[in-house]
């Protein structure tokens, strides 16, 4: 840049070369970009010709060095070929189903899935000619529900709200003999405590909104695949312009660095509270796959390397809504809210009659879902004790 340029021009072009020499920072810089510049037209042509098959920094919508770094962390966690990032976990689910299914196809979805995934199958996908049948959360009716045009099996294990387990090894083996893909929602496992790709799934997706971010301040989804099904997903993402902000990617990266340590603490606290809840006379069932009483406990022992901060409990059948509200509304350490995976404790009512269609919850009591945070569990138990005292009021 020449000193003879006007101030207006110099303001735009100053400070573009690296501003420092010396060592390197521990963390990735945030690279914010829409436009990416090339040295000459030949380089631009070459980069454009390679970017379909290779990960090349060529335009902000296809990712930046900051988002690529996070993709690599996810691929490492999941044991995947590659990973794409999405603005939310739900966007990751939607794009995955659109990438692998077309009008006229049928897919099987587990009864245990996150409710908005169920709504997507029953609404938008159905309207666009993609049919879905729900199968039992344990997967035992999978073969009976198979159709000639079944192209994909979608599981969530452990399931949302009550953490049902399925035998993913067996489901994947069967689906593959029928030429179908297996997709798993791995939000519960965070890529740490459950490894769908190692258990035969072809695609593992998760809401990085939860434990990866870990601080309840960022939304993000991720889809990690084996090599054979990468290009269909990648092309669909590019066709729809799926991308995430590098600032958000940086925040998730910061969360990931402490995730393993946080998860161990969430697990320890949740188990303490689960054991305490099991001794309460008002609670017929505590849902947590790490409890020996849980129907999926043997599969959890085989397939999971731990549990997290999620536990749910059933109240005595017949307990009415106003009584459940009394228990929850006076809690001071549990925020009333959905989502989970932050450092803080949360409580919400799980409406199982709406959340499941294959299994029958009509005879069961109300279910309350807790996310146990990093607070001292003794304080959380004292808070819950006041809640149970209010039940008698
Ligand atoms: C929260 C959640 C999602 C969706 O994530 P968002 O980022 O909130 O869209 C998907 N699957 C499961 C199992 C979840 O718990």
UniProtKB/TrEMBL annotation:
Organism domain of life: Bacteria
Recorded catalytic reaction(s): these are: an S-substituted L-cysteine + H2O = a thiol + pyruvate + NH4(+); L,L-cystathionine + H2O = L-homocysteine + pyruvate + NH4(+)
Task: State one molecular function term (GO).
Answer: cysteine-S-conjugate beta-lyase activity
What are its cofactors? pyridoxal 5'-phosphate
Q: What is its EC number?
A: 4.4.1.13
Q: In which pathway does it act?
A: Amino-acid biosynthesis; L-methionine biosynthesis via de novo pathway; L-homocysteine from L-cystathionine: step 1/1
* Pfam families xrefs: Cys_Met_Meta_PP (PF01053)
Q: Look up the coiled coil feature and give its residue ranges.
A: none
Record-stated family: Belongs to the trans-sulfuration enzymes family.
Protein name (database record):
Cystathionine beta-lyase
Annotated source species? Ottowia thiooxydans
């Amino acid at each position: 840049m020449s000193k003879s340029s006007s101030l207006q021009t110099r303001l735009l072009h100053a400070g573009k070369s690296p501003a420092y020499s010396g060592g390197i920072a521990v963390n990735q810089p945030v690279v914010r970009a829409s436009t990416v510049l090339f040295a000459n037209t030949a380089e631009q042509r070459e980069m454009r010709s390679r970017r379909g098959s290779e990960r090349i920094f060529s335009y902000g919508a296809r990712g930046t060095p900051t988002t690529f770094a996070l993709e690599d962390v996810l691929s490492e966690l999941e044991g995947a070929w590659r990973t794409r990032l999405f603005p939310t976990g739900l966007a990751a689910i939607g794009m995955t189903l659109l990438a692998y299914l077309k009008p006229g196809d049928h897919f099987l979805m587990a009864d245990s899935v996150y409710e908005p995934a169920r709504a997507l199958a029953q609404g938008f996908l159905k309207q666009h000619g993609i049919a879905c049948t729900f199968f039992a959360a344990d997967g035992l009716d999978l073969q009976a529900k198979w159709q000639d045009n079944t192209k994909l099996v979608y599981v969530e294990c452990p399931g949302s709200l009550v953490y049902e387990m399925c035998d993913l090894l067996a489901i994947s083996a069967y689906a593959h003999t029928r030429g179908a893909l297996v997709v798993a929602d791995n939000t519960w496992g965070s890529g740490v405590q459950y490894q769908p790709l190692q258990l035969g799934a072809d695609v593992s997706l998760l809401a990085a909104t939860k434990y990866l971010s870990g601080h309840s301040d960022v939304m993000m989804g991720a889809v990690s695949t084996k090599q054979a099904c990468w290009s269909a997903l990648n092309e669909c993402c590019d066709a729809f312009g799926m991308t995430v902000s590098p600032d958000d990617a940086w925040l998730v990266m910061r969360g990931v660095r402490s995730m393993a340590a946080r998860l161990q603490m969430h697990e320890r606290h949740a188990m303490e509270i689960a054991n305490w809840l099991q001794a309460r006379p008002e609670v017929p069932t505590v849902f947590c796959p790490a409890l020996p009483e849980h129907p999926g406990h043997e599969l959890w022992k085989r397939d999971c390397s731990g549990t997290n901060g999620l536990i749910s409990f059933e109240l005595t059948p017949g307990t009415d809504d106003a009584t459940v509200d009394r228990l929850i509304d006076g809690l001071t350490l549990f925020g009333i809210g959905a989502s989970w995976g932050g450092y803080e404790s949360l409580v919400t009512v799980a409406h199982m009659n709406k959340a499941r269609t294959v299994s029958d919850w009509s005879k069961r009591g109300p279910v309350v879902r807790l996310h146990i945070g990093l607070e001292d569990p003794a304080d959380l138990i004292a808070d819950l004790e006041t809640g149970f005292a209010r039940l008698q009021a």
